[in-house]
Structures are given as structure tokens and as C-alpha cells.
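User: Please predict the structure of the protein below. I'd like the answer in C-alpha cell form so I can feed it into my own downstream comparison script.

Assistant: Understood. Taking the following sequence of 257 residues as input:
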Amino acid sequence: MQDKNFDSLAGKFAKNIYGTPKGEIRAAVLWRDLQAVLTPYGDRKLRILDAGGGFGFFSQKLAAQGHEVVLCDISAEMLASAEAQIAASSVPLNIRLVHGPLQALNLTDHGQFDLILCHAVVEWLADAKSALEGLLQLLKPAGLLSLMFFNLDAMRFHALVSGNFDYVRADFKIKKKVRLTPTHPLPVAQVRDWFSEWQLQTQSESGVRVIHDYLKKSLPPEFSQQDLLEMELRYSTEPLYVPLGRYVHFIGQKPQD
């Protein structure tokens, strides 16, 4: 098994992630969660690693707040897009670009970070657990890991309510796959077990798209995307709905010692 490189799909990938209503939901949920855990730091400038961050959507937002960011991605096309956007920014952005797999990041070259982002990456990796354990070596004591992963449980439930029972019976192994469908989705319980094993204290849990992907085709005339966004934000942290999120966002804090 090989890890996914998005060089050939860079444009389509970027558009699908943040150029759609579902991308707006994703950005809103993640940004809310991040701001909640960063607020106690006040005006302190943090060292942040965006591991597998693509063109650096959150790298740019965090750097605009004055933080020092290292943006790493395996895709040269994604980093080229990041470089162009950083150069065009109306405010100076302290972002260093690193081309390569996140597994190659090391203490000697990069030091440790106050916050590590790993969003929509591990579901494309052949060995997600080992990759995350490597990232934890780069996290300072009491540092924060922001992990968003594609949710196997929601993938199954969505297939069930869509009537795709053969797909579920086949354990999602089909001959023709959509190229942007993650290859290694993770169950929520497994990631919770990893956090426990690593002694990460969970600061927040959110479901990303707990409503959007289950909407009926026939919607009421008064339906609006703004209402949908408000409801996504409202219910994304409800324990009952977190496991329904197409993605799940955990923020964990490393032990002080």
C-alpha cells in the first residue's frame, strides 16, 4: 500500500475542499475548534506545524494572526499554490514550506511545536498510527494535536441510508472508486483508543458535516445554506451526532511531562 500524493489532482482537490458548501462547513467547524483552544494563549506567538496541509488554508489563517508556521506536504503542486497565495497575501505571513512526506519530519531539522495540525491526511496513509506517533515526537509538552480524519462509521451509515447494502457487505471494496474517496477511513473508537494510549487529554471532539451528507433531495422552500451552517455548528459537538460527522475533529493535549 502507498500513501496518496495529490499532484495530479491538486486543482480539483482544492476546489472540492474549500470551494463548496461542504467545504465552508469544514472550515467553520475546524476554525471554531482551533480558536477555542488557542484563546487561553492570548497574544503569545506559537510555533505551528501543518502536516500534510496542502495549499495551507489554515496555515495562512494562523500565520495572519502572527504565528510561525511550517507547512509540509508531499505534493509539489499543492505547495506551489501555497507559495503563490502567500506571496499575494495583504499581510506578511511567516510560513516555511517543506516538500516531502510528513513521516520524514524530524526533531533535528524542525524542532518542536506548540500546535500540530493534521487534517484529512491520515485516511490516505497506509500506516496512520505510526505517522501520528512520529508527529507526536515533534509536539512540545502540553502541546496540542488537531487531528481531523475521514470517519469509517459515517461512511458506513451514509451507505446504509442510501441503500447501498452491497457496498457495505463488500466492506467498501469495489472495483471502481472515486479518486477523492479516502482509502483508509478510521473508526472513531479506534482513534479514541490511540489518544488514550498516547495519554492525550481530549480538549474537544466535533463532527464535520453531521447534517449535510444526509440531507434529503427534496428540501423545504425556505431552506438556506446559512441555516445549514448554523445547524452544523450547533450540533457538531453534541455527543450523539459527533460519530455521524463525515469527518471527525479531535484536539488532544500532550502531557506536560
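That's the full C-alpha cell string. The first helix runs from residue 10 to 18.
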